[in-house]
Amino acid sequence: YTQISGSDFNNAALVLGTGDEADLIKAIYVDEDNKIDGNGAASAPVTVGNATDVTQAGVKATAVADKTSANVGEKVKYTVTVSGTAGADAENDTITLAITGLSDATALTPASGTNCTVSGLVITITANDTATSGTFTVEGTVTGAVSATLTGAAVS
Predict the structure, then answer these.
(1) Which of 46, 45, 49 shows the shortest CA–CA distance to 149?
(2) 19 SS3 class
(3) Which residues pair with 117 in a beta bridge?
(4) Are the C-beta atoms of 118 and 137 separated by less than 8 Å?
(5) Under 8 Å CB-to-CB from 70, ≥6 apart: which residues?
(6) Cis link prior to 45 (omega < 30° from 0)?
(7) Half-sphere exposure of 92 toward its Cβ, with a 13 Å CA cutoff?
(8) Closest Cα partner for 53 from 30, 84, 77, 31?
(9) CA nearest to 155, candidates 62, 93, 104
(10) Which segments of the chain have a pLDDT < 50?
(11) Please, are residues 146 and 46 in contact by the beta-carbon 8 Å criterion?
């Protein structure tokens, strides 16, 4: 182990060549978190984006990630908050969260809030002219750059 700075250490794994490379020694450096790609370079974090707020029938929705960047394989959690007073024709209107770059991020929890229910990544307003609120989360594993989109839809 070689101390780089503070409590950050590197260790080296030596790999001997084979065949025509039998007399070669190759060194691969791995940091303390084992963040390395197949070429021996440290993996770079990817961007994690928040969704642009959306308002559907008087109910505002936000989706905010718990971090702004992450390494592939790390967990990222989104918190979706809805609040407002549902309008006169809001019953059954929906707000949908779409996420790219996260595996297994398929369902918001818990399954309901005040005047709204959840199925997968879709929040449905359940009554007209009613105060609506809820805080929901979904977590997944980073597979690439992460982005989120919120969309609202009126159901007649």
Answers:
(1) 49
(2) helix
(3) 112, 124
(4) no
(5) 45, 46, 48, 76, 142, 146
(6) no
(7) 2
(8) 84
(9) 93
(10) 1, 29, 32-41
(11) yes
Contacts of 84 (CB under 8 A, 6+ apart): 55, 58, 59, 60, 131, 132, 133
Record the tokens describing residue 22, joined without a space: 């039998």
Q: What angle do CA 102, 154, 76 make, to 5 degrees?
A: 15
- Residue 133: per-residue pLDDT: 97
What was the pLDDT predicted at 97? 97
Give the single-character DSSP code of 20. Answer: G
Token pair for residue 115? Answer: 């005047």
What does the alpha-carbon distance between residue 68 and residue 130 come to, in Å, rounded to a whole number? 34
Cite the DSSP H helix spans in the chain. none
The pLDDT value given to residue 39: 45
Among residues 138, 69, 70, which one has the least CA distance to residue 99?
138
What residue has token string 């005047």?
A: 115
pTM: 0.74
Question: Which DSSP string corresponds to 59-71?
Answer: EEEEEEES-SEE-
Six-digit token pair at 126? 């359940």
* Residue 94 CB coordination number (10 Å): 17
